[in-house]
Design a protein that fits this description.
- The protein has two domains: 46 residues; 54 residues, Beta Barrel (OB fold (Dihydrolipoamide Acetyltransferase, E2P)), CATH 2.40.50.
- A hairpin with a 2-residue loop joins strand 1 and strand 2.
- The chain is rod-shaped, with a radius of gyration of 27 Å.
- By secondary structure, it is an alpha+beta fold.
- A four-stranded antiparallel sheet has the order 3-2-1-4.
Length: 108
Amino acid sequence: MIKHVCNYYTRYFLLETLFENSKFTIFLVIAIVGVAGSLFGYLNWYVAPDSVTEKVKIIANTADGCIAESYDGFSVNIGPCDAKAGDVIVGTYDKKINERAILMNPTG
């Protein structure tokens, strides 16, 4: 019974402190919105694709699309195409795939 009463008074005190001091409430809301907004912005920047269009050399034409080698030596999937292995074509791919590959294998 005492534990329940302490929790009730603790909650009441926290709510009273939060809503009686309007400067503190405004600061808390701004801080929460700022942190949430910055996390959302960072995640969008990191996850959003960065498309690059350049000449690539086709390695293979598979059912999942053409696998090509970019000029910096990475294998990328450029989607369906009619090229054969060894052809050089213009393809569009996500440049951030290369950065993620480097992060996954820092030794190579």
